[in-house]
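hiii so my PI (J.) wants the whole complex modelled not just the main chain, which honestly fair. so below is everything: two entries, each one labled with what it is. i double checked the lines twice but i was tired so who knows lol
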Amino acid sequence: MVMENQAERHNRVMARRKRWMDEQIARAQADKGVLLVLTGDGKGKSSSAFGMAARALGHGMRVAILQFIKAPLDTGEERFFSQFGNVAFHALGEGFTWETQNFERDRAIAEAGWALARDYLRDPATDMVILDELCVALAYHYLDWNSLRGDVLARPDHQHAIITGRGAPQGLIDDADTVTEMRALKHAFDAGIRAQKGIEL
Amino acid sequence: MVMENQAERHNRVMARRKRWMDEQIARAQADKGVLLVLTGDGKGKSSSAFGMAARALGHGMRVAILQFIKAPLDTGEERFFSQFGNVAFHALGEGFTWETQNFERDRAIAEAGWALARDYLRDPATDMVILDELCVALAYHYLDWNSLRGDVLARPDHQHAIITGRGAPQGLIDDADTVTEMRALKHAFDAGIRAQKGIEL
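here's the output for the full assembly
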Protein backbone atom coordinates (compact mmCIF):
# COMPACT_ATOMS: atom_id res chain seq x y z
CA MET A 1 0.00 0.00 0.00
CA VAL A 2 1.27 3.41 -0.91
CA MET A 3 0.24 4.97 2.41
CA GLU A 4 2.06 2.34 4.44
CA ASN A 5 5.18 2.82 2.38
CA GLN A 6 5.11 6.55 2.91
CA ALA A 7 4.63 6.08 6.66
CA GLU A 8 7.39 3.49 6.84
CA ARG A 9 9.81 5.64 4.89
CA HIS A 10 8.94 8.59 7.08
CA ASN A 11 9.55 6.58 10.25
CA ARG A 12 12.89 5.32 8.95
CA VAL A 13 14.01 8.86 8.07
CA MET A 14 12.88 10.17 11.45
CA ALA A 15 14.68 7.36 13.30
CA ARG A 16 17.89 8.16 11.43
CA ARG A 17 17.49 11.85 12.16
CA LYS A 18 16.95 11.14 15.86
CA ARG A 19 20.12 9.02 15.99
CA TRP A 20 22.11 11.78 14.28
CA MET A 21 20.75 14.43 16.63
CA ASP A 22 21.44 12.30 19.72
CA GLU A 23 24.98 11.69 18.50
CA GLN A 24 25.59 15.37 17.89
CA ILE A 25 24.39 16.25 21.37
CA ALA A 26 26.42 13.46 22.98
CA ARG A 27 29.56 14.42 21.08
CA ALA A 28 29.39 18.09 21.86
CA GLN A 29 31.49 18.71 24.92
CA ALA A 30 32.01 22.38 25.48
CA ASP A 31 29.51 24.32 27.57
CA LYS A 32 30.42 27.91 26.96
CA GLY A 33 29.05 31.12 25.60
CA VAL A 34 29.08 31.41 21.83
CA LEU A 35 29.94 34.26 19.48
CA LEU A 36 27.10 34.34 16.99
CA VAL A 37 27.06 36.51 13.86
CA LEU A 38 23.89 37.32 11.91
CA THR A 39 24.76 39.00 8.62
CA GLY A 40 23.68 39.27 4.97
CA ASP A 41 21.32 41.60 3.11
CA GLY A 42 18.10 39.78 4.00
CA LYS A 43 15.72 40.85 6.74
CA GLY A 44 15.54 39.23 10.16
CA LYS A 45 19.05 39.76 11.55
CA SER A 46 18.13 42.10 14.39
CA SER A 47 14.81 40.38 14.90
CA SER A 48 16.65 37.13 15.36
CA ALA A 49 18.89 38.64 18.01
CA PHE A 50 15.85 40.07 19.80
CA GLY A 51 14.17 36.68 19.67
CA MET A 52 17.23 35.17 21.31
CA ALA A 53 17.00 37.87 23.97
CA ALA A 54 13.38 36.84 24.58
CA ARG A 55 14.45 33.19 24.96
CA ALA A 56 17.27 34.14 27.30
CA LEU A 57 14.83 36.12 29.45
CA GLY A 58 12.62 33.04 29.52
CA HIS A 59 15.54 31.29 31.20
CA GLY A 60 16.05 34.09 33.72
CA MET A 61 19.24 35.28 32.06
CA ARG A 62 20.49 38.90 32.06
CA VAL A 63 20.78 40.57 28.67
CA ALA A 64 22.50 43.73 27.45
CA ILE A 65 21.35 45.15 24.10
CA LEU A 66 23.43 47.84 22.39
CA GLN A 67 22.11 49.23 19.11
CA PHE A 68 24.95 50.72 17.09
CA ILE A 69 22.77 52.03 14.28
CA LYS A 70 19.31 53.37 14.91
CA ALA A 71 16.63 51.92 12.67
CA PRO A 72 15.07 54.44 10.24
CA LEU A 73 11.66 53.73 11.77
CA ASP A 74 10.74 53.23 15.40
CA THR A 75 10.57 49.48 15.63
CA GLY A 76 9.21 48.98 19.12
CA GLU A 77 11.96 46.80 20.50
CA GLU A 78 13.33 49.42 22.88
CA ARG A 79 9.87 50.08 24.27
CA PHE A 80 9.30 46.36 24.66
CA PHE A 81 12.60 45.27 26.19
CA SER A 82 12.96 48.30 28.46
CA GLN A 83 10.15 46.97 30.65
CA PHE A 84 12.29 44.07 31.93
CA GLY A 85 14.60 44.42 34.90
CA ASN A 86 16.95 41.83 33.37
CA VAL A 87 17.55 43.90 30.24
CA ALA A 88 19.91 46.84 29.75
CA PHE A 89 18.95 48.55 26.48
CA HIS A 90 21.13 51.24 24.90
CA ALA A 91 20.22 52.95 21.63
CA LEU A 92 23.69 54.25 20.79
CA GLY A 93 23.21 55.19 17.17
CA GLU A 94 20.82 58.09 17.66
CA GLY A 95 20.83 60.11 14.48
CA PHE A 96 23.49 57.99 12.83
CA THR A 97 24.56 57.55 9.21
CA TRP A 98 22.37 58.89 6.45
CA GLU A 99 20.44 61.17 8.77
CA THR A 100 23.57 62.96 10.00
CA GLN A 101 26.16 62.77 7.21
CA ASN A 102 29.04 63.63 9.49
CA PHE A 103 31.73 60.95 9.53
CA GLU A 104 33.79 62.20 12.46
CA ARG A 105 30.78 62.72 14.68
CA ASP A 106 29.46 59.26 13.82
CA ARG A 107 32.81 57.71 14.58
CA ALA A 108 32.98 59.40 17.97
CA ILE A 109 29.48 58.13 18.81
CA ALA A 110 30.48 54.61 17.82
CA GLU A 111 33.64 54.72 19.92
CA ALA A 112 31.74 55.94 22.96
CA GLY A 113 29.27 53.12 22.33
CA TRP A 114 32.05 50.57 22.28
CA ALA A 115 33.35 51.78 25.64
CA LEU A 116 29.92 50.94 27.03
CA ALA A 117 29.83 47.58 25.25
CA ARG A 118 33.18 46.73 26.78
CA ASP A 119 31.73 47.19 30.27
CA TYR A 120 29.10 44.53 29.57
CA LEU A 121 31.60 42.24 27.87
CA ARG A 122 33.62 42.30 31.12
CA ASP A 123 30.62 41.79 33.41
CA PRO A 124 30.12 38.17 34.54
CA ALA A 125 26.53 39.03 35.63
CA THR A 126 25.61 39.68 31.98
CA ASP A 127 24.73 36.39 30.27
CA MET A 128 24.14 37.73 26.76
CA VAL A 129 25.44 40.82 24.98
CA ILE A 130 23.71 41.83 21.75
CA LEU A 131 25.75 44.19 19.57
CA ASP A 132 23.01 45.11 17.13
CA GLU A 133 24.12 46.52 13.75
CA LEU A 134 27.74 46.51 14.83
CA CYS A 135 28.66 45.17 11.39
CA VAL A 136 27.28 48.33 9.82
CA ALA A 137 29.46 50.47 12.11
CA LEU A 138 32.40 48.30 10.99
CA ALA A 139 31.48 48.59 7.31
CA TYR A 140 31.33 52.40 7.60
CA HIS A 141 34.75 52.39 9.32
CA TYR A 142 33.37 53.92 12.49
CA LEU A 143 35.01 50.99 14.30
CA ASP A 144 37.59 48.36 13.36
CA TRP A 145 37.13 44.68 14.25
CA ASN A 146 40.85 44.21 14.92
CA SER A 147 40.56 46.77 17.73
CA LEU A 148 37.39 45.24 19.19
CA ARG A 149 37.98 41.50 18.96
CA GLY A 150 40.13 41.31 22.09
CA ASP A 151 37.24 42.66 24.18
CA VAL A 152 34.79 40.21 22.62
CA LEU A 153 37.00 37.13 22.84
CA ALA A 154 38.03 37.88 26.46
CA ARG A 155 34.42 38.00 27.74
CA PRO A 156 33.34 35.68 30.59
CA ASP A 157 33.23 32.00 29.58
CA HIS A 158 29.47 31.57 29.87
CA GLN A 159 28.54 34.84 28.14
CA HIS A 160 26.92 34.78 24.71
CA ALA A 161 27.75 37.58 22.26
CA ILE A 162 25.49 38.21 19.26
CA ILE A 163 26.62 40.57 16.51
CA THR A 164 24.27 41.61 13.73
CA GLY A 165 24.37 43.68 10.57
CA ARG A 166 25.09 43.32 6.88
CA GLY A 167 28.64 43.11 5.66
CA ALA A 168 30.33 41.24 8.53
CA PRO A 169 34.10 41.49 7.94
CA GLN A 170 36.04 38.29 7.34
CA GLY A 171 37.97 38.69 10.58
CA LEU A 172 34.74 38.62 12.56
CA ILE A 173 33.49 35.59 10.62
CA ASP A 174 36.77 33.82 11.38
CA ASP A 175 36.43 34.57 15.10
CA ALA A 176 32.74 33.60 15.35
CA ASP A 177 31.43 30.21 16.49
CA THR A 178 28.26 30.42 14.42
CA VAL A 179 27.54 32.60 11.38
CA THR A 180 24.21 32.87 9.62
CA GLU A 181 23.82 34.82 6.40
CA MET A 182 20.31 36.15 5.76
CA ARG A 183 19.63 36.28 2.03
CA ALA A 184 16.70 38.22 0.60
CA LEU A 185 14.92 35.93 -1.86
CA LYS A 186 12.00 38.34 -2.17
CA HIS A 187 11.25 41.70 -0.58
CA ALA A 188 7.89 43.42 -0.01
CA PHE A 189 9.60 46.82 -0.22
CA ASP A 190 10.13 46.18 -3.92
CA ALA A 191 6.46 45.41 -4.29
CA GLY A 192 5.45 48.81 -2.91
CA ILE A 193 4.33 47.88 0.57
CA ARG A 194 5.15 50.52 3.12
CA ALA A 195 7.48 49.60 5.97
CA GLN A 196 5.23 48.66 8.88
CA LYS A 197 5.41 49.06 12.58
CA GLY A 198 5.73 45.77 14.38
CA ILE A 199 7.39 43.99 11.49
CA GLU A 200 10.77 44.17 9.89
CA LEU A 201 10.19 43.99 6.16
CA MET B 1 44.23 65.37 3.25
CA VAL B 2 43.32 61.69 3.29
CA MET B 3 40.99 62.08 6.27
CA GLU B 4 38.95 64.81 4.62
CA ASN B 5 38.59 62.78 1.49
CA GLN B 6 37.32 59.81 3.43
CA ALA B 7 34.83 61.99 5.30
CA GLU B 8 33.67 63.66 2.09
CA ARG B 9 33.23 60.36 0.30
CA HIS B 10 31.36 58.97 3.28
CA ASN B 11 29.03 61.97 3.37
CA ARG B 12 28.36 61.71 -0.35
CA VAL B 13 27.54 58.02 -0.06
CA MET B 14 25.30 58.66 2.95
CA ALA B 15 23.47 61.48 1.18
CA ARG B 16 22.82 59.21 -1.80
CA ARG B 17 21.62 56.43 0.50
CA LYS B 18 19.27 58.80 2.29
CA ARG B 19 17.77 59.95 -1.01
CA TRP B 20 17.26 56.36 -2.09
CA MET B 21 15.65 55.42 1.25
CA ASP B 22 13.35 58.45 1.17
CA GLU B 23 12.30 57.61 -2.38
CA GLN B 24 11.57 54.00 -1.47
CA ILE B 25 9.41 55.08 1.44
CA ALA B 26 7.60 57.72 -0.61
CA ARG B 27 6.95 55.29 -3.45
CA ALA B 28 5.60 52.54 -1.30
CA GLN B 29 1.85 52.90 -1.18
CA ALA B 30 0.21 49.87 0.32
CA ASP B 31 -0.34 49.71 4.06
CA LYS B 32 -1.29 46.13 4.69
CA GLY B 33 -0.20 43.05 6.54
CA VAL B 34 2.59 41.10 4.92
CA LEU B 35 3.18 37.39 4.45
CA LEU B 36 6.77 36.87 5.52
CA VAL B 37 8.67 33.58 5.10
CA LEU B 38 11.88 32.75 7.00
CA THR B 39 13.47 29.63 5.57
CA GLY B 40 16.85 28.01 4.85
CA ASP B 41 19.14 25.73 6.85
CA GLY B 42 20.83 28.46 8.92
CA LYS B 43 19.89 29.32 12.48
CA GLY B 44 17.75 32.29 13.45
CA LYS B 45 14.48 31.63 11.64
CA SER B 46 12.28 31.09 14.68
CA SER B 47 14.28 33.58 16.71
CA SER B 48 13.60 36.18 14.06
CA ALA B 49 9.87 35.52 14.23
CA PHE B 50 9.98 35.80 18.02
CA GLY B 51 11.89 39.07 17.74
CA MET B 52 9.15 40.39 15.45
CA ALA B 53 6.62 39.31 18.06
CA ALA B 54 8.56 41.32 20.66
CA ARG B 55 8.49 44.38 18.39
CA ALA B 56 4.79 43.95 17.72
CA LEU B 57 4.13 43.77 21.47
CA GLY B 58 6.14 46.99 21.82
CA HIS B 59 3.50 48.56 19.58
CA GLY B 60 0.61 47.16 21.59
CA MET B 61 -0.30 44.63 18.91
CA ARG B 62 -1.90 41.24 19.58
CA VAL B 63 0.12 38.21 18.54
CA ALA B 64 -0.71 34.52 18.08
CA ILE B 65 2.20 32.07 18.05
CA LEU B 66 1.63 28.51 16.87
CA GLN B 67 4.60 26.15 17.00
CA PHE B 68 4.10 23.29 14.58
CA ILE B 69 7.26 21.42 15.56
CA LYS B 70 8.51 21.35 19.09
CA ALA B 71 12.17 22.22 19.47
CA PRO B 72 14.35 19.32 20.69
CA LEU B 73 15.40 21.41 23.71
CA ASP B 74 13.31 23.69 25.85
CA THR B 75 14.12 27.07 24.40
CA GLY B 76 12.38 29.40 26.82
CA GLU B 77 10.18 31.25 24.35
CA GLU B 78 6.93 29.72 25.56
CA ARG B 79 7.77 30.59 29.16
CA PHE B 80 8.68 34.11 28.10
CA PHE B 81 5.79 34.95 25.80
CA SER B 82 3.12 33.27 27.91
CA GLN B 83 3.43 36.05 30.48
CA PHE B 84 1.86 38.62 28.12
CA GLY B 85 -1.87 39.11 27.87
CA ASN B 86 -1.49 40.12 24.22
CA VAL B 87 0.06 36.78 23.24
CA ALA B 88 -1.67 33.48 22.51
CA PHE B 89 1.01 30.76 22.52
CA HIS B 90 0.27 27.24 21.32
CA ALA B 91 2.92 24.51 21.28
CA LEU B 92 1.18 22.20 18.82
CA GLY B 93 4.02 19.88 17.96
CA GLU B 94 4.38 18.18 21.31
CA GLY B 95 6.32 14.99 20.77
CA PHE B 96 6.48 15.46 17.01
CA THR B 97 8.75 13.98 14.36
CA TRP B 98 11.87 12.12 15.38
CA GLU B 99 10.68 11.64 18.94
CA THR B 100 7.44 9.92 17.89
CA GLN B 101 8.11 8.24 14.56
CA ASN B 102 4.43 7.83 13.76
CA PHE B 103 3.43 9.50 10.52
CA GLU B 104 -0.34 9.24 10.82
CA ARG B 105 -0.36 10.51 14.39
CA ASP B 106 1.89 13.42 13.46
CA ARG B 107 -0.32 14.30 10.53
CA ALA B 108 -3.42 14.31 12.72
CA ILE B 109 -1.68 16.62 15.21
CA ALA B 110 -0.67 18.98 12.41
CA GLU B 111 -4.19 19.06 11.00
CA ALA B 112 -5.68 19.84 14.40
CA GLY B 113 -3.06 22.56 14.73
CA TRP B 114 -4.09 24.07 11.43
CA ALA B 115 -7.72 24.23 12.52
CA LEU B 116 -6.53 26.38 15.42
CA ALA B 117 -4.32 28.51 13.15
CA ARG B 118 -7.31 29.15 10.91
CA ASP B 119 -9.21 30.65 13.84
CA TYR B 120 -6.47 33.24 14.35
CA LEU B 121 -6.13 33.87 10.61
CA ARG B 122 -9.84 34.80 10.60
CA ASP B 123 -9.66 36.98 13.71
CA PRO B 124 -9.37 40.73 13.01
CA ALA B 125 -8.28 41.31 16.63
CA THR B 126 -5.08 39.33 15.96
CA ASP B 127 -2.46 41.60 14.38
CA MET B 128 0.26 39.02 13.81
CA VAL B 129 0.11 35.24 13.38
CA ILE B 130 3.38 33.32 13.68
CA LEU B 131 3.26 29.83 12.16
CA ASP B 132 6.55 28.60 13.55
CA GLU B 133 8.15 25.61 11.79
CA LEU B 134 5.16 25.25 9.51
CA CYS B 135 7.56 24.66 6.61
CA VAL B 136 8.83 21.54 8.38
CA ALA B 137 5.27 20.23 8.71
CA LEU B 138 4.89 20.90 4.97
CA ALA B 139 8.19 19.22 4.12
CA TYR B 140 7.15 16.10 6.06
CA HIS B 141 3.80 16.08 4.23
CA TYR B 142 1.84 16.51 7.44
CA LEU B 143 0.15 19.43 5.69
CA ASP B 144 -0.04 20.69 2.10
CA TRP B 145 0.43 24.36 1.20
CA ASN B 146 -2.20 24.20 -1.54
CA SER B 147 -4.79 23.32 1.10
CA LEU B 148 -3.65 26.04 3.52
CA ARG B 149 -2.94 29.00 1.30
CA GLY B 150 -6.57 30.08 1.00
CA ASP B 151 -6.76 30.53 4.78
CA VAL B 152 -3.53 32.53 4.84
CA LEU B 153 -4.30 34.76 1.87
CA ALA B 154 -7.85 35.51 3.08
CA ARG B 155 -6.70 36.82 6.48
CA PRO B 156 -7.69 40.36 7.59
CA ASP B 157 -5.97 43.11 5.56
CA HIS B 158 -3.85 44.49 8.41
CA GLN B 159 -2.76 41.10 9.78
CA HIS B 160 0.86 39.99 9.40
CA ALA B 161 1.58 36.29 8.90
CA ILE B 162 5.07 34.93 9.53
CA ILE B 163 5.93 31.39 8.47
CA THR B 164 9.23 29.79 9.47
CA GLY B 165 11.11 26.57 8.86
CA ARG B 166 13.58 25.06 6.46
CA GLY B 167 12.45 23.86 3.07
CA ALA B 168 9.68 26.36 2.25
CA PRO B 169 7.83 24.99 -0.79
CA GLN B 170 7.89 27.02 -4.00
CA GLY B 171 4.16 27.69 -3.81
CA LEU B 172 4.59 29.39 -0.45
CA ILE B 173 7.54 31.42 -1.74
CA ASP B 174 5.42 32.53 -4.69
CA ASP B 175 2.60 33.63 -2.39
CA ALA B 176 4.84 35.45 0.10
CA ASP B 177 5.56 39.19 0.14
CA THR B 178 9.01 38.83 1.70
CA VAL B 179 11.22 35.74 1.83
CA THR B 180 14.50 35.50 3.70
CA GLU B 181 16.73 32.47 3.40
CA MET B 182 19.01 31.84 6.39
CA ARG B 183 22.24 30.21 5.27
CA ALA B 184 24.65 28.61 7.73
CA LEU B 185 28.13 29.90 6.94
CA LYS B 186 29.54 28.37 10.12
CA HIS B 187 27.99 26.35 12.93
CA ALA B 188 29.17 25.96 16.52
CA PHE B 189 27.52 22.53 16.69
CA ASP B 190 30.19 21.29 14.28
CA ALA B 191 32.85 22.65 16.58
CA GLY B 192 31.60 20.60 19.53
CA ILE B 193 29.80 23.23 21.55
CA ARG B 194 26.73 21.90 23.29
CA ALA B 195 23.38 23.40 22.42
CA GLN B 196 22.71 26.04 25.03
CA LYS B 197 19.66 27.32 26.81
CA GLY B 198 18.86 30.87 25.84
CA ILE B 199 20.50 30.73 22.46
CA GLU B 200 19.69 29.03 19.23
CA LEU B 201 22.95 27.68 17.91
